Amino acid sequence: MAVSDAKGTPAGLDERSAEGVPVLELRDVRKAFGGAQALAGVDFTLRPGEVHAVVGMNGAGKSTLVELICGSFAPDGGDILVDGHRQGTLTPRRAHAAGVSIVHQRRTLVAGLSVAENLLLGRLPTRAGRVLWRRVREEAASALADLGLDIAPGALAGDLGPGEQTLVEIAREVHHGGRVLILDEPTASLGGPDARRVHGLVRTLRARGTAIVYISHHLDEVLSLADRVTVMRDGRVAAVEDRAALDLPVLVRAMTGDRLVQGRPEARRTPGAPVLTLSGLCGGRLRPFDLEVRSGEVVAVLGPAGDGQSELFGLLSGLRRARSGTVAVRGAQIRSGSVAAALGAGLRCVTGDRLSYGLVPGLGVDENLDLVRRGRLRPWLVRWRDLRARARSSRDRYGVTTIQDDPPVAALSGGNQQKVLLAAWLDGDLAACFLEEPTTGVDIAAKADIHRIVDGLAERGAAVLLGSSDIDEVIRLADRVVVVRAGRTVADLPMDQVSRDDLVTLIAGGDQS
């Protein structure tokens, strides 16, 4: 790795003279919350037509950096420059007027409006107080075609798949004049084909001169897309490198320092008696599905996005009623379509969409940690002293860290949000659990912590069903893997008898032989 100075600028390189004036520049930017220093003298430059990735572990300062660029936070010190001009106090409106736009990890399209209406939201052309709908459709169609996107302007945004929704959000910001585009985990919840479409659009925008700040925990896509990479650690810039100087081991070590990611334990568990039994379960694309998970066992379900395994959360949690089939815990059948019945039977289901189905973003961490317990007992009765004490205990056990005492859960990093989600739904007695994409949008350190939590569940005797699209995560955690394709089981194998290549082949359409 090339030598970098204390603030992360490669030694001997004058970027302003070599590349011209950066479209965005941060100089010695600092930000503290209470007594905690979130950013400590950060320098950052972004050139026109560049994809500059920012990576780092949970709490490294990535989110704070993004909020400063967008004007959501004001820095305590240092300067922010756009096109070489020092900015005063940035606000979101001023940042947007300067051409700085952000696409958040959580999608913000209005589901009940068309793609065209979402693209022009807030800027609909009018005459005499009436919307010019023909012009809306024409302008939206032109904007989509200009980016090579084959998406119907008249389609409802809520009917689009997650990948198309992300593409429309990016197109909206570009159409509204975004010259500096911040993409915050744009592919965190997308399958391979959708992620590749997003990658293609990023490359198109780069070729057109758009400057892109790319935030991602998927290091393989960072190494594929980025021109430069800034690595943050503990609120500081640990390194700034051209893509050519990096490979995966070097990048991971820069992010973690001396901290190592936990590997697969050599000694595996010995499962006990059957606990979770699915018999002929049908719903959505899932065909008659049979599965048995034993005490102390982790069983992973893998398959192409949308091929049936994604139906499991709704069917097991009680959010959806099964067309046919049964779910039983320790031999006792659970009434289909009832969340209370699932919880009462000791079955806990943790969603992969934490801010929509698992947590209440506007509530504090402590109240979120107590949501499930209160919901099952007496939600109208809150003993705040007891709630705070339980929350402190849960934070300690699950490794939840916050800068403020009890911030809104939406203000936390993805890794801490996920730990709050797991603590809220898994704390206490449970017989079985279903974990849907438990490490989506978290960094390396948080991922290792969550893996240890899953190991702990199995060691305590819970039956763990894991729905993950991360093959390496499945290899790390699972005792058994079930591959589902077109809604049907095509393989059910012990993990010690299957390789990564085998799993890729099975998902792609190969057979068990």
Walk me through the structure.
- The protein has three domains: 15-107 and 161-256, 3-Layer(aba) Sandwich (Rossmann fold), CATH 3.40.50; 110-159, no CATH class; 274-508, Rossmann fold, CATH 3.40.50.300.
- The protein is globular, with a radius of gyration of 24 Å.
- Mean pLDDT is 85; it is low at 1-18.
- The strands form five sheets. Strands 6-9-10-3-11-12 form a six-stranded mixed sheet, sandwiched between helices.
- The chain starts with 14 loop residues before the first helix and ends in a 5-residue tail after the last helix.
- It has 19 helices and 22 strands.
Give the arrangement of secondary structure elements.
Elements: H1 15-19, E1 24-33, E2 36-46, E3 51-56, H2 62-70, E4 77-82, E5 85-86, H3 92-97, E6 100-103, H4 115-119, E7 126-127, E8 130-131, H5 133-146, H6 162-175, E9 180-184, H7 192-207, E10 211-215, H8 219-225, E11 228-233, E12 236-242, H9 248-256, E13 274-283, E14 286-294, E15 298-302, H10 312-317, E16 324-329, E17 332-333, H11 339-344, E18 347-350, H12 354-358, H13 365-369, H14 371-376, H15 384-398, H16 414-426, E19 432-436, H17 444-459, E20 463-467, H18 471-477, E21 480-485, E22 488-494, H19 500-508
Parallel strand pairs: 3-10, 3-11, 6-9, 9-10, 15-20, 15-21, 18-19, 19-20
Antiparallel strand pairs: 1-2, 1-4, 4-5, 7-8, 11-12, 13-14, 13-16, 16-17, 21-22
